[in-house]
What we know:
This protein is an alpha+beta fold. Strands 28, 29, 30, 31, 35, 36, 38, 39, 43 and 44 form a 10-stranded antiparallel sheet that branches. Helix 12 links the parallel strand 17 and strand 18. The N and C termini lie far apart (66 Å). The structure holds zinc ion (ZN) (2 copies).
Amino acid sequence: MRLSRRHFLALTPFIAEARSGHTIVIAEEASASERRAARELQTFLQQMTQARLPVATARERVTGPMLLVGRSPEVDKLRLDIPWGSLGDEGFALKSAGDHLVIAGGRRRGTMYGVYEFLERLGCRWYTPDCSRIPKRASIALPHLDEIQKPAFEYRELFSTPSRNLDWAARNRVNGNFSALDGSAGGKITYFPFGHSFYELVPPARYFATHPEYFSFTAGERRVTRAQLCLTNSDVIRLGTEGVLHWMGEHPDADFISISQNDTEGWCECPNCRRVEQEEGSHAGPILRFVNAIASETSLHYPRRRLDTFAYSFSETPPARVRPLPNVNIRLAPIGNCQGHPYEQCARNRTFLERLKGWQRIAGHFYVWHYFTDFWQYQLPYPNLDELIADIPLYHRHGARGMFLQADISPGYPTEFAELKSYLLAKMLWNPRIDARATIREFLRAFYGAAAPAMSEYLELTHRQVRLPPAGKGKTLWTYKSFEMEPDFLPAARRIFDRAGKAAATPSEALRVDKARLSPEWVEVLDAKKMTLRGGVWGPADPQRFTRLFQSYMTKLRSFGIERLYETHDLAATEAEYARYARPYRAVTIENGQLRAVLIPDYLARVISLQHLGSGRETLRQTTPDERASNIEAMGGLILLAHQGYLTEERHDPTWIIDSSDGRHAITLQGATANGLEFQRRLELKGNCLHTTATVTNRGNATVKLALQSRLEFQPGLRDQPSVLYGFRRVNGATVEESLLPQRDLYFGIENHTGNERPNGEWTVWNPSAGIRVRNRFSLEQAHICRLWWRGRGENKVDLCLWSPDRQLEPGESLSLDADYDVEAL
Ligand SMILES: [Zn+2]
Ligand SMILES: [Zn+2]
């Protein structure tokens, strides 16, 4: 029931002129959170009115009216109609009884939430750990209350900085694993481990040498790099069960034990796992059967304990047959969705909606893991408010019982508008039916004060970039890609922030505006970082300007206590990465009348451009300034890399020097590494073909583990309208043709072609919109694995990767990998 104004007016004040006849009464056996609740009630009422109400236990003889906090004999004596049994841990009742008021609910956190609800009714707000509103009142009338509340979602987790503050988390009623909540605030919902736990359960270091069959069979072998477990292996099920029982014993308080896939691809392709996958029509099939097998065993020992697994990335599609057992919870984590538009309005999210409905049909209990920042760049503008406002209720309608909302939890609130979004989301997780727009307006007024109108205008500017026409430009917003900025965006943002800065009326308002301004300022830094080719140099257009902007930006970040811009890097690592890669490079160009190739010797000797001269079309994807060198294999272009083994991140990166440039159409390079590897590489244009050859020789004294990769990243076309197909004939005669971009079911794909399933010496990738085709020819003797790797969701990467066999290169031995790339305009 909502409280009407009439209720306030009708009643006599319970606090007036800094006095009150009321006593706050708690039970003798009140829980820790109920004691906290009574203290909080006392504190905030005093801050509001200067009246300090005494706190007594029910055993003490209290005369006069009471604020009864938590269930006690005194509450029971009132014989109110409170359905205690249905309130659970977190529900509460607010009930007037004559001059008394009862605020009581679940002992764990319910009573405490009831007190915060009451204080919010009186006008209190805790917007951020540093920004609250506690209104001053000369008098307060005790409203007539008669209501029951329970949270919409039982699990409410904000993986964002404010929830690291205990008071903020308790007062805004989030209860997740990473929040700072402890016993004093009724604890929280916990996981052990939190996720991606396959290798914690069956560690490769312990088992791979003796039992490779426990791990994924992928690309023709059992592997542990970028791999998973072989989930149909009975020993793996036994080890998994033992491991989970052990965890349950060691972590008696964990609400969930997570048995979940590693955060990479590499599912097992052994015949057994493949058969299950085919029966189930989904990679989730083998996973869920595995988790169920463990769950049926652990339920015999721990009938109340719950297991958890992911429906994420390759396992997002619900399985056709298997159903999660009652003690198995699913966390559905759509990382491949467009976050710019309410899911039901965005054609790009249709597949996901079907999956959501599918999980709703088969899972008795599931949570959703939803993303609300740009994961490559926390600071980039991320206009997802329309989406969040529509989709938190959508998840609730479709049966999700919990939400993990992920941005980041590092100090200084690096995520764009982390303060606003965290507050709004906390409120929506308790009750998705709140007036979200009003909540946003209220927050902006409280947090930015006189600058609120300008900040609201800025939010309009960013949201207009993604809103569907005619309200906006309809751009996409992916988890790893903010919207595509047009040249008019930055000047408009600057104008608004200039106004906001002038409008700010207090130092703290000015500081908050300045902090929000970090977001468009990062756009400016990235703009300056953009690599362009001019006069034989590839690099930022004005390297000194870029360095100046970048350094002053880092200084500003530190002044706000921000320690990271990305999930995996602190600021020092970011600075090292930018200093190493974002700089001017000497470029070497070769051309032959049909093609022009540009090579950057000091950038891993990458070919950054391969242009078809007749049409002027580019065949290679160009790197964008928001990309990061931690993913340097896939930053556009054509590259030769020497890994320490198939798919390993560890590489032997040589220093390259140009050996000779014979004429204008060929270049020979030599490379050397400290461990004695010597590289010979040649690129030559002949007709419409770029021939590449590479040989590496071990000139050192020790054996070196080595696998060569020749990798072309193809031209995807326009950012929001990519178009890439690929096809080939296999050695065994079968033909393959697939459309890769735009993404359809999955946001990524991987195909490892080995043996007779390899392309028969050539494979082709083409882009009908950009009008360009590349045929990659190679020797079956040299190319042991042909790996197709592609990614949608705005990253738009399609890579043809040729891999040599893994070799232990003895001193004096060599390994070669050649590749030809024929270019055609369509
Ligand atoms: Zn298997
Ligand atoms: Zn969309």
